């Protein structure tokens, strides 16, 4: 179990407060598709995701990013319950969607970078450390139902 | 990361000479271990009826993969060029996350250690590790 200190929780809530999920959401999936193109494997039903232009204009890509950040929002509000919270999602991503969990790690890093673009110096090293600790605990929870 | 030097290549070729007759066994066991120890790798085989580590599909695939490794030994002097076709296959069709190459390489070496405890010395281990890493890099070359 990842133990977040009170200081870390406060930093995570503060930085998350500054994130506009409608702005950052669309960025995260487009980033993972552009930076790690093999992840397009998971989005066979999303239509045209084969050029940078197509990816950036694809509404299913931007919507999925928002869906992911909505889940993260629930996690920020329930930091003690992350493993339980993501049990169903983990099982679904494994059993139905056949997602390689390495992709969760890659997406986590894309989320941090997308946030950094918007937040700039507000994402200082201390904030980044706390944020990533939280994010990796979500990645960990998403791995738990793979068997 | 340093590239394969002449000594590494000689070591890999010499070791492979000793073990090549067991290539299919190594492949089957390595694939089985990969699926059993790293269950997330099963996500690439949803098209198999039976994704269990000892299934016929898994055994067959282990043989295929090890055939690729055997071929790569003969192309050890120019893996990029030699594995171009396979690199394109993995990049554009299979889209296997490259982190999985390291996982499979590890399992191949575990099997080698089990089957050839005397020959799989630390020197052979490091040469084989470097070779499999170079193989993985060549496979990932067309990814982006």
Automatic annotation (TrEMBL), chain A:
Question: PANTHER family recorded for this chain?
Answer: HEMOGLOBIN FAMILY MEMBER, HEMOGLOBIN, BETA ADULT 2
Q: Name one GO molecular function term.
A: heme binding
Task: Please provide one cellular component term from the Gene Ontology annotations of this protein.
Answer: haptoglobin-hemoglobin complex
Q: What region holds the Globin domain? A: 3-147
The family assignment reads:
Belongs to the globin family.
Its recorded name reads Hemoglobin cathodic subunit beta-like
Alphabetically list the UniProt keywords: Heme, Iron, Metal-binding, Oxygen transport, Transport
Coiled-coil blocks: none
* One Pfam family named in its UniProt record: Globin
Q: Which domain of life is it from?
A: Eukaryota
Q: Which SUPFAM superfamilies match?
A: Globin-like
User: Could you tell me which species this protein originates from?
Assistant: Gouania willdenowi
GO BP of this protein:
hydrogen peroxide catabolic process
Automatic annotation (TrEMBL), chain B:
Q: Cite the Globin domain residue spans from the record.
A: 3-144
Cited Pfam families: Globin
Q: Which UniProt keywords apply?
A: Heme, Iron, Metal-binding, Oxygen transport, Transport
Question: Which biological processes are named by the entry's GO terms?
Answer: hydrogen peroxide catabolic process
Record's signal peptide: none
From what superkingdom does this record's organism come?
Answer: Eukaryota
Q: Which GO terms describe its molecular function?
A: haptoglobin binding; heme binding; metal ion binding; organic acid binding; oxygen binding; oxygen carrier activity; peroxidase activity
Record bears the keyword Transmembrane: no
The record's listing under PANTHER family reads: EMBRYONIC ALPHA GLOBIN E1-RELATED, HEMOGLOBIN FAMILY MEMBER
Q: What's this chain's function?
A: Involved in oxygen transport from gills to the various peripheral tissues.
Q: Which family does it belong to?
A: Belongs to the globin family.
Q: What is this protein called?
A: Hemoglobin subunit alpha-1-like
Q: What is the organism field in this record?
A: Gouania willdenowi (Blunt-snouted clingfish)
Q: Which gene encodes it?
A: LOC114469007
């Amino acid at each position: 179990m990842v133990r977040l200190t009170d200081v870390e929780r406060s930093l995570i809530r503060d930085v998350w407060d500054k994130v506009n999920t409608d702005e950052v959401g669309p960025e995260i999936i487009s980033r993972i598709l552009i930076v790690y193109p093999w992840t397009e494997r998971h989005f066979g039903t999303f239509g045209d995701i084969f050029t940078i232009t197509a990816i950036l204009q694809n509404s299913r890509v931007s919507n999925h990013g928002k869906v992911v950040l909505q889940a993260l929002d629930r996690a920020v509000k329930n930091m003690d319950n992350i493993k339980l919270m993501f049990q169903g999602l983990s099982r679904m991503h494994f059993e139905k969607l056949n997602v390689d969990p390495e992709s969760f790690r890659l997406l986590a890093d894309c989320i941090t970078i997308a946030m950094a673009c918007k937040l700039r110096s507000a994402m200082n090293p201390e904030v980044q450390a706390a944020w990533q600790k939280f994010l990796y605990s979500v990645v960990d929870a998403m791995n738990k139902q793979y068997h | 990361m340093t590239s394969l030097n002449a000594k590494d290549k000689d070591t890999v070729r010499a070791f492979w000479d000793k073990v090549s007759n067991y290539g299919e066994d190594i492949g089957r066991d390595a694939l089985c271990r990969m699926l059993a120890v790293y269950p997330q790798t099963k996500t690439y085989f949803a098209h198999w009826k039976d994704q269990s580590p000892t299934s016929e599909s898994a055994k067959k695939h282990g043989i295929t993969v090890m055939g690729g490794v055997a071929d790569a030994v003969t192309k050890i002097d120019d893996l990029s060029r030699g594995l171009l076709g396979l690199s394109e296959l993995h990049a554009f069709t299979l889209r296997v996350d490259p982190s999985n190459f390291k996982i499979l390489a590890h399992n191949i070496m575990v099997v080698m250690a089990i089957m050839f405890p005397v020959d799989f010395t630390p020197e052979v281990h490091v040469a084989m590790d470097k070779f499999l890493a170079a193989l993985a890099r060549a496979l990932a070359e067309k990814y982006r």
